[in-house]
Specification:
The complex is a heterodimer of chains A (111) and B (115). Chain A has 111 residues and is mainly beta. Chain A is 0% helix and 59% strand. Chain A has no helices and 11 strands. In chain A, strands 2, 4, 5, 9, 10 and 11 form a 6-stranded mixed sheet that branches. In chain A, strands 1-3-8-7-6 form a 5-stranded antiparallel sheet, with no helix packed on it. In chain A, 36% of the residues are buried. Chain B is built from no helices and 11 strands. In chain B, strands 2, 4, 5, 6, 9, 10 and 11 form a 7-stranded mixed sheet that branches. A 4-stranded antiparallel sheet of chain B has the order 1-3-8-7, with no helix packed on it. Classes of the chains: A mainly beta (111), B mainly beta (115). Chain A binds chain B through residues 1-2, 4, 30-31, 33, 40-45, 48, 88, 90, 92, 96-104, and chain B through 4, 33, 35, 40-45, 48, 50, 58-59, 90, 92, 98-109.
């Protein structure tokens, strides 16, 4: 069973706009990670946020974590056509030793 | 530094045939993982290995076996392929033994079709 559920399933925006994706999960976590997958390729790690952190930045990426709501969001600012990809959240539960992935959000950035 | 490599890239099998998917990493990572990815399902863990000589079942282990040959290599075997095993298979590795705390590095995937 999947721990993380992304919302929306698909998102289409114009280049230059911001893209926001959300992830909800069910159990208490140690950390939450976001990955990107370009079509036909393997996943690439983007950012990790620990359960005691509320916000983290990396370049044009901003991740927030609300453990009380068991949710996270990934914001990509000033999107580019090259950001077109699927984005997955993955969680590691407290005491667990595996990552559990959500079903992903498909982002399309139109130029 | 090639990262995580997988062979083959594509494979077509008939029902009942067997095959082994190969995975190798050159990052000196302790942990290695096998996932399958199906449309709309995200990635599901098949098996993982926290360190050389150990393997554990993941979420969907039925129909698969694994071997952690050495620290670099982790293979996935389908003994008798079924159409339900049609999927894209990804191998991944991470640096912390048995933990998912740190990022995982993924291979390019093997696209398997079972007819």
């Amino acid at each position: 069973s999947q721990q993380g559920e992304e919302d929306p399933q698909a998102l289409s925006i114009q280049e230059g706009e911001n893209a926001t994706m959300n992830c909800s999960y069910k159990t208490s976590i140690n950390n939450l990670q976001w990955y990107r997958q370009n079509s036909g390729r393997g996943l690439v790690h983007l950012i990790l946020i620990r359960s005691n952190e509320r916000e983290k930045h990396s370049g044009r990426l901003r991740v927030t974590l609300d453990t009380s709501k068991k949710s996270s969001s990934l914001l990509i600012t000033a999107s580019r056509a090259a950001d077109t990809a699927s984005y997955f959240c993955a969680t590691r539960s407290i005491g667990g030793n595996k990552l559990v992935f959500g079903a992903g959000t498909i982002l399309r950035v139109k130029s | 530094n090639a990262g995580v490599t997988q062979t083959p890239k594509f494979q077509v099998l008939k029902t009942g045939q067997s095959m082994t998917l190969q995975c190798a990493q050159d990052m000196n990572h302790n942990s290695m993982y096998w996932y399958r990815q199906d449309p709309g399902m995200g990635l599901r863990l098949i098996y993982y290995s926290a360190s050389e000589g150990t393997t554990d079942k993941g979420e969907v282990p039925n129909g698969y076996n694994v071997s952690r040959l050495n620290k670099r290599e982790f293979s996935l075997r389908l003994e008798s392929a079924a159409p339900s095993q049609t999927s894209v298979y990804f191998c991944a590795s991470s640096g912390e033994p048995g933990q998912g705390a740190h990022e995982q590095y993924f291979g390019p995937g093997t696209r398997l079709t079972v007819t």
